[in-house]
Design a protein that fits this description.
Elements: E1 5-10, E2 13-21, E3 24-31, E4 37-42, E5 49-53, E6 59-61, H1 62-67, E7 72-77, E8 81-90, E9 100-105, E10 116-118, E11 122-123, E12 135-138, H2 150-161, E13 163-165, E14 168-170, H3 178-182, E15 195-197, H4 199-202, H5 227-236, H6 240-244, E16 257-264, E17 267-274, E18 277-280, E19 284-285, H7 296-308, H8 319-327, E20 331-335, H9 339-347, H10 349-359, E21 363-368, H11 373-377, E22 384-394, E23 397-403, H12 424-430, E24 440-444, H13 445-451, E25 454-458, E26 464-475, E27 478-481, E28 484-489, E29 493-500, H14 509-512, E30 517-526, E31 529-535, E32 539-540, E33 543-550, E34 556-561, H15 584-597, H16 607-615, H17 623-630, H18 638-648, H19 654-663, E35 672-681, E36 685-692, H20 694-703
Antiparallel strand pairs: 1-2, 1-11, 2-3, 3-8, 4-7, 4-9, 5-6, 5-8, 9-10, 12-36, 13-14, 15-18, 16-17, 18-19, 20-25, 21-22, 21-25, 22-23, 23-24, 26-27, 26-35, 28-34, 28-36, 29-33, 29-35, 30-31, 30-32, 30-34
Helix pairs in contact: 5-8
């Protein structure tokens, strides 16, 4: 059943077309007035349709109606009601449904009212419904990741809030303790005791950030169930430049601090970690294991763990999310049992799609979700993610090159490393690496579909990209959205539109900042009106993505919408501040506040952003300390913001600050939810942002009436 199409025929009359099946359309009318309406539909231009009159229940072909000399159906629509008018059945591929409307108020309407005829029904949201400006333009901030003085300022900040052991720094935001292993995780056990060690304690000789060259064989998953993250890292290793751009450091840090970038919840964020790693007895790392004396894989895993709260909290996930967090690119999953994928498998287009992804160099992973004895017998791990390195075809054989992030334990069926399927011709055509102890293997397309369940892909193109931040704010009627966006493109192009809230995997989000409901709504702007182009599902969810083709020369409107569900204080009690310790709950609350305040999505708060944030408290604060931390004209990094807050706990009413920042009974976010809108297109994107007026909101609700999929 497809969403209804809504057309406004008059001030109080709406027409809905609802396609129940491929060849069946139901027409309904909504009379919003207190008077009856006499209404007619003229089907004289239709061809090859059956028409069912909902009053008489007669079903006649349009040709029969024409032979009787009348192709018009007339009915009286009751006041304040929604009324089924007719059912339409398309009886052949050449069927054509066209109609015009004619309606007149029944006797008793105010004098002077005229009958109305609509040859072409008016689209919802055109200037006939409301007048006035849609909104006020607000300049779009330009993100800046300027790293001038960056490393030294972070190191200076860590000197103030961390302690040193000899010449090495210790990160007290993510210290070597129990919380860093298990905070927020369901599984808080390890089979063997863990102790934290630095590289020179478990590596023999000198070590490097990268040893020789970056390659998929560098990734060896340990005892942590994060294959959904490790398999995307292995795919990235096929393109070493994508790995290196994640690291601010170019080599080993003299004081043991490393800075890593992730694109989390739609914006690039820096995570700083020290080089303490969880280890087991015998100088073995507990989780990811180095391939030689190099650090980069272990540092990525540790930084990603810190970003979410702990190592164990990142167990179990969907690989396309790992791909997106590592690349910032639009990413999606194909579930093999879904109707859409099954249809593509049957008509052969799914292989073409995979081959196209591979030929274009897109980053891909695959997962085995089906638990079968046959899969285990043939060397596959159920509930496990793999890197999908290549799709190739030769001599009628469709094959996929896949790698287990464990670095061992491979497929033992047809086309495995020692399979007789590898003839000299096939080896010459594909030049496979048939090393039996590297975790990589080949598998036929048929076996891939039989044993694997999902494949994920990051769309790697030379995109024009826009990242924009706003808030959903709770109000008496539900919630308001801070901005809507007008978009134009230089040339016709497909655009990936993504909308993000905070990931529920992050520590504390599900308890204290649950995602509110939201949807992506895309319109074509016609005059001062809105014509619906596409609307996403509407749900309490952390992320949404829609693909839409935009045409040059047109203006489009994108509106993130929320009703404000879940933006409230929970029923159970809250905590408080008893000392100046930045405990995990407070730390992640401050990160959320910092994220909302950083409108430009740059590395740190500008002076204006910081001052705007503090003005919300309507309270005094130590301006000299703030200026000292910001070094006069520089931005305030998160570590410095945390230090400022910590230093203020003893002298300021910071509980009042939290309340004014929208956190009510600490630490629940009871007023706001931050969102990030991300656009990727192959043509240059021009985006303006506006604060929506009441006229815009009215037009939006008219344009989406009956169309939200909830």
């Amino acid at each position: 059943k497809m969403p209804a199409t809504c057309k406004k025929l008059g001030q109080n009359l709406l027409l809905f077309e609802e396609q129940n099946q491929k060849d069946s359309v139901e027409i309904k009318l909504k009379n919003k007035s207190s008077q009856e309406l006499d209404f007619q539909l003229d089907f004289s231009e239709s061809q090859g349709v059956l028409i069912e009159n909902s009053i008489t229940a007669n079903v006649e072909t349009i040709e029969d109606l024409k032979s009787k000399g009348s192709q018009v159906i007339s009915q009286t629509i009751p006041p304040n009601s929604t009324h089924k008018f007719a059912g339409i059945y398309l009886i052949s591929e050449s069927s054509c449904l066209k109609y015009s409307s004619n309606f007149q108020d029944s006797p008793g309407i105010p004098s002077g009212a005229d009958s109305k005829k609509s040859e072409t029904p008016t689209e919802i949201g055109t200037p006939s419904s409301a007048d006035g400006p849609l909104g006020t333009e607000v300049p779009v901030p330009t993100p800046s990741y300027e790293l001038r003085f960056f490393e030294k300022r972070v190191e200076s900040s860590y000197t103030s809030i961390s302690r040193f052991e000899g010449s090495q720094s210790l990160d007290l935001f993510f210290p070597p303790d129990y919380n860093s292993l298990f905070l927020g995780a369901e599984n808080s056990e390890m089979e063997d005791p863990v102790r934290w060690q630095r590289p020179d304690e478990f590596m023999k000789g000198s070590y490097e950030l990268y040893l020789d060259r970056i390659e998929p064989a560098d990734i060896n998953q340990g005892a942590l169930g994060d294959c959904w993250f490790m398999s995307p890292i292995a795919v990235l290793a096929e393109k070493p430049e994508l790995v290196k751009r994640l690291f601010v450091n170019k080599g080993v840090s003299e004081i043991g601090l490393y800075h890593v970038w992730f694109c989390k919840d739609g914006e690039w964020v820096r995570v700083t970690v020290d080089d303490y790693f969880p280890c087991l007895m015998g100088a073995r790392t507990a989780f990811s294991k180095p391939n030689g004396n190099e650090l980069w894989v272990m540092l990525l895993e540790k930084a990603y763990s810190k970003l979410h709260g702990s190592y164990k909290i990142i167990e179990g996930g969907l690989p396309h999310k790992g791909l997106r967090d590592l690349t910032g690119l639009p990413s999606k999953a194909h579930f093999f049992e879904s109707d859409g994928t099954q249809s593509m498998i049957r008509d052969g287009s799914f292989w073409d799609l995979l081959k196209n992804y591979s030929d274009k160099g897109y980053l891909m992973t695959a997962s085995v979700d089906k638990s079968t004895e046959e899969a285990k017998y043939k060397g596959l791990v159920t509930g496990h993610g793999y890197s999908l390195l290549r799709c190739a075809e030769a001599y009628g054989n469709k094959l996929l090159n896949i790698r287990n992030p464990w670095g061992h334990y491979e497929w033992e069926g047809a086309w495995c490393d020692h399979s007789r399927c590898w003839t000299s011709k096939m080896k010459e055509a594909l030049n496979p690496n048939l090393d039996e102890d590297d975790g990589a293997f080949w598998i036929s397309y048929e076996d891939f579909l039989k044993y694997f369940s999902t494949m994920s892909v990051a769309i790697c193109e030379d995109f024009s990209e826009k990242r924009l931040k706003g808030v959903f704010k709770r109000n008496s009627s539900g919630a308001s959205t801070e901005f809507y966006y007008e978009v134009e493109v230089k040339a016709d192009t497909k655009v990936y539109v993504e909308l993000f809230q905070e990931d529920t995997r992050i520590y504390g989000v599900n308890e204290w900042r649950k995602p509110t409901d939201m949807s992506i709504n895309i319109f074509e702007k016609v005059g001062n009106g809105l014509c619906k182009l596409k609307t996403s599902m509407h749900a309490c969810i952390s992320e949404l993505m829609e693909e839409v083709t935009l045409e040059a020369g047109k203006t489009y409107v994108i509106f993130p919408f929320s009703r404000g569900n879940e933006i409230e204080e929970p029923l159970y009690g809250g905590g408080g501040l008893h000392d100046d310790v930045l405990n995990p709950r407070l730390l992640f609350t401050l990160k959320d506040i910092f994220k909302r305040a950083s409108k430009s999505m740059s590395e740190g708060l500008t002076q204006e952003e910081f001052q705007n944030l503090m003005s919300e408290t309507q309270d005094q604060y130590d301006q000299s300390l703030a200026k000292q931390l910001m070094l006069g004209t520089e931005k305030m990094l998160f570590e410095e913001f945390a230090q400022f807050f910590k230093s203020s706990i003893q002298t300021q009413n910071v509980m009042n600050w939290l309340e004014k920042w929208g956190y009510g009974e600490f630490p629940w976010a009871s007023t706001y939810r931050t969102y990030v809108l991300v656009l990727h297109g192959l043509s240059e994107l021009q985006v303006k942002q506006f604060t929506p007026s009441e006229v815009f909101i009215e037009k939006f609700h008219e344009a989406t009436q009956g169309m939200h999929r909830v």
